[in-house]
Write a structure and sequence with these properties.
heterodimer, A: 292 residues, three-stranded antiparallel beta sheet, 9 helices, 31% helix, B: 553 residues, five-stranded mixed beta sheet, 15 strands, binds iron/sulfur cluster
Chain lengths: 292, 553
């Protein structure tokens, strides 16, 4: 089985053709979930909507085991429940180890969101990830992708104190498998050329000023995407003397991409969500015309 | 770890006792290969360190300060960790001295042992102890806006304190002369890389001086570990530098396991080796691809990146993480490999190897590629030695430093890490080869190519001879007593990563000192670029492949 996963998305493998010009790119990057192995820790979800199921013992065991405090006890209308803040979750999988019937770790990445609040899932509200929603996300993103092809997107990456794990995945977007340039997304060398800032890391204190300056140097309209648990919330590095506790403490953030690190597909879906926020080319052209 | 008497320790003990007996309060052995020499007086530390450094040809591997004011005896403690690199002595000598909190300073050893320069500045920033005699007292980790008199690693500093900025200027070294000008670069760079500032002084296009200013990604890793549980800090260890997660978590777990005096099941040790080598392969492939990009040969980099991606997918298919997060646990590993997985790993690695050799053969025929690397970014061997350089950067300059055979850990004592170390004759031959290495970007390229092949063969060998049994053991909790400490170390793809861990009350950590290979190796870049021109810098930088996060913590 593991063999099949490895083969997926890779052109029929024959070691003689590495120097040929065979296409290695994954065609359906977002719709094709079969390239993601089942043991990939992509997202945490509650399996049950019933808050009563959670005894105090389990609740405190869960909040104790979670090093980033992504899990917390939430009391709604007298019912104790458990809340999960996906922006903090580093997908270590330890919560599942201690409460396997309450928590599931899915191999599909959690969706990017536009408001950090949307990443908080409470057990009583139900935030279960089902097979269906995976499919839907894929289709929705595919449609958006098509729309996106109409304009190109210039991206500037800013490391504001990451562990470099997120950089490894962002770099991967440029490799021939993911080949993000085919969607019109390209990385530029200066914030002055950028539409989008892709920011990683908990925004360390030592990077705070540089990040503000980079933001100022980016022309309007600009979008900031916070990449990874660190950028979304401070992640494992939290809010300390050395960090600011997340990129949105320093500059306004438009899209949050959870994960630690988010896999290339998740990064792409975050970028696509960001595109929605930019005025489409025709709109901006019209407004330009009107100014004249 | 074997149960044998460590002959090296006996030897060094008697030499040190004979020479410095009167200055030594105690001399004792710990954790199989650590020789602790506790001094009566702080003032004698330079003399003894200098002796160990020059007489035993030792390398200053790390320097640890800890705030032990609450522990009996009081005060800050300095530990100078020296690594004895010769082939038959797996020994670390730890020179320990106390600093009186009423007089927060210590004698600098930086002029005798240049590798100590940065450690001393770090200790000054984080603990407020002044290294008397160190000529460079500028701030290092806490940038210029940090107010004086606030020291984050002191026990009484609360990690969540927000410190208001003060206005101060950092003084770069000024190079003056007719036609000399300065180019500031960073911290935000043009590519997808981590932040750091480089200040070039140039004459025409030639670099006459480079000063690096790092620590932009400092996020308080060591402070975060304080008072945390052992399990939580493991997650932190993995994120010291994301692409070195296995090396750093191995070093960390090892330190805990040593404190607990627990040995691991064979299979766990073997799997640690497999994952460590998988990590080395994907990262070296990435660096080679980066070199190809910086040379301007996009085709080579695209092909190598395909192989890197295949290895990362293999990582994920086996362990659930493309960056191998979560594979280590205290007492062993979390992920076992079935026979089927094991076969798939071997086959995938073989396929990648064939493709890799095809690409490398092609690159070697491109004179424009090879010429660009030759004599670029030369690391002088003498400087490498003095600055205590490790890993590929040291090996490319002819220094045979590799923790995997100097201080074997996990299952490395049974595994030859390369083809050259299997017989005395081959070792001699290898040493002669080493002497021929000139420390340029081409040597680094070649060393990485060799190491990828070695790692591939190690993975095959280990997986074919995997022992049966458990993949982890519960460590002996009763041994996790307050104030016990141990070194943990590993060879990442960048070189030696050295961790020192001290437990406190309730099995929580009081001090976790991390020194990754990047911290040791960053200073050498200032030397390596000296004969080059500005456009060479990205190539020199990439060929050294240093982590900012691993340095800045
Ligand atoms: S997987 Fe996420 S929620 Fe669960 S323990 Fe880890 S960080 Fe917390
Ligand atoms: S989110 Fe995770 S991988 Fe990304 S920078 Fe933070 S710790 Fe590293």
């Amino acid at each position: 089985m593991i063999r099949n996963i490895l083969k997926k998305g890779i052109s029929a493998k024959s070691s003689r053709d590495i120097l040929s010009s065979k296409v290695e790119t994954i065609r359906n990057l977002l719709g094709d979930t079969s390239v993601i192995p089942p043991n990939y820790r992509g997202s945490v979800a509650f399996t049950k909507p019933i808050p009563q199921m959670i005894t105090d013992d389990i609740a405190s065991a869960l909040t104790d085991v979670c090093a980033t405090r992504a899990l917390s006890v939430e009391t709604t209308a007298g019912d104790a429940g458990i809340a999960l803040d996906r922006s903090k979750c580093i997908l270590c999988g330890r919560c599942k180890e201690i409460a396997p019937d309450l928590i599931a770790i899915g191999n599909w990445f959690s969706p990017s969101v536009k408001r950090r609040q949307e990443m908080i899932v409470t057990s009583s509200v139900q935030g279960q990830l089902t097979e269906k929603s995976v499919e839907e996300t894929g289709i929705e993103l595919k449609i958006r992708l098509r729309r996106t092809l109409g304009r190109s997107l210039a991206v500037r990456e800013v490391d504001a104190g990451s562990c470099n794990g997120c950089e490894v995945e962002i770099t991967a977007l440029n490799n021939p498998y993911y080949d993000i340039e085919r969607f019109g997304i390209h990385f530029v060398a200066s914030p002055r050329h950028a539409d989008v800032l892709l920011v990683t890391g908990p925004a360390s204190s030592n990077m705070e000023i540089a990040l503000q300056r980079t933001y100022k140097a980016t022309p309007e309209p600009k979008i900031v995407i916070a990449i990874g648990a660190c950028a979304c919330s401070g992640g494992l590095f939290g809010d300390t003397y050395a960090t600011t506790g997340g990129v949105d403490k320093v500059v306004p953030v438009d899209v949050y991409v959870p994960g630690c690190p988010p896999r290339p597909q998740a990064l792409l879906s975050g970028l696509l969500l960001a595109v929605d926020k930019l005025p489409s080319k025709s709109e901006s052209r019209i407004s330009e015309e009107m100014k004249k | 770890m074997s149960g044998n008497v460590n002959n090296g320790i006996t030897k060094y003990t008697s030499i040190i006792t004979e020479k410095f007996g009167e200055h030594v309060e105690s001399i004792s052995e710990a954790n199989m290969n650590e020789l602790h020499v506790t001094l009566k007086q702080l003032g004698n530390s330079p003399k003894i360190c200098e002796f160990i450094y020059s007489k035993f040809h030792a390398r200053l591997s790390t320097m640890v300060c800890s705030d032990e004011r609450r522990v009996d005896g009081g005060g800050y403690t300095l530990r100078y960790v020296f690594s004895m690199g010769d082939d038959d002595n797996d020994v670390f000598i730890v020179v320990t001295a106390k600093v009186d909190p009423r007089n927060p300073s210590f004698p600098s050893i930086a002029l005798q042992i240049p590798a100590a320069f940065l450690y001393e500045r770090e200790i000054k920033d984080m603990f407020g102890l002044t290294p008397q005699g160190n000529p460079d007292m500028r701030p290092l980790i806490l940038h210029e806006e940090w107010p004086s008199g606030v020291f984050p690693l002191r026990m009484d500093f609360d990690i969540s304190t927000k410190i208001p900025r003060v206005h101060k200027e950092y003084q770069f070294i000024k190079v003056e002369g007719e036609g000399v000008c300065e180019i500031p670069v960073g911290p935000v760079h043009a590519g997808i890389i981590e932040p750091g500032h480089f200040r070039f002084s140039i004459l025409g296009e030639h670099i006459v001086n480079l000063e690096t200013r790092l620590f932009y990604t400092h996020k308080g890793v060591e402070k975060l570990a304080e008072n945390r549980s052992l399990e939580e800090v493991l997650l932190l260890a993995e994120r010291i530098s994301g692409d070195e997660s296995v090396a750093n978590s191995t070093a960390y777990c090892q330190a805990v396991e040593k404190i607990a005096q627990s040995s691991l099941p064979k299979r766990a040790e073997q799997l640690r080796v497999v994952y460590a080598e998988m990590e080395r392969i994907y990262n070296h492939l990435g660096t080679l691809a980066g070199i190809s990009t910086d040379v301007g040969y996009a085709y080579g980099s695209a092909r190598l990146n395909i192989l890197k991606e295949r290895m990362m997918r293999l990582n994920e298919a086996v362990t659930g993480s493309r960056l191998l997060f979560g594979v280590n646990r205290i007492g062993g590993v979390t992920v076992d490999v079935s026979d089927e997985v094991s076969r798939t790993v071997i086959d995938t690695v073989n396929d990648v190897q064939q493709d890799f050799e095809a690409i490398i053969a092609l690159l070697r025929t491109k004179s424009s590629f090879i010429d660009r690397l030759r004599k670029t970014g030369v690391i002088p061997r003498k400087a490498a030695k003095e600055l205590g350089i490790v890993g590929v950067a040291a090996r490319c300059a002819g220094l045979d430093i590799d923790v995997r055979h100097d201080h074997p850990y996990a299952a490395y004592s049974e595994i030859r890490i390369d083809q050259q170390h299997d017989s005395p004759r081959n070792i001699t031959k290898y040493r002669i080869e080493m002497q021929k290495r000139v420390g340029d970007a081409l040597s680094r390229f070649e060393v990485r190519v060799e190491e990828i092949k070695d790692s591939m063969s190690i993975i095959g060998k280990v997986l074919r001879n995997l022992s049966e049994g458990e993949i982890y053991t519960s460590i002996l909790q009763e041994n996790l007593k307050p104030y016990r400490h141990a070194l943990g170390y590993a060879e990442s793809h960048r070189g030696e990563t050295m961790h020192w861990l001290m437990l406190g009350e309730k099995k929580r950590i009081t001090r976790y000192k991390v020194r990754t290979a990047s911290f040791s190796n960053w200073p050498i870049i200032e030397q390596a670029v000296l004969n080059d021109i500005i456009p060479d810098f990205p190539l020199v930088n990439k060929s050294l492949d240093l982590s900012y996060s691993g340095n800045d913590l």
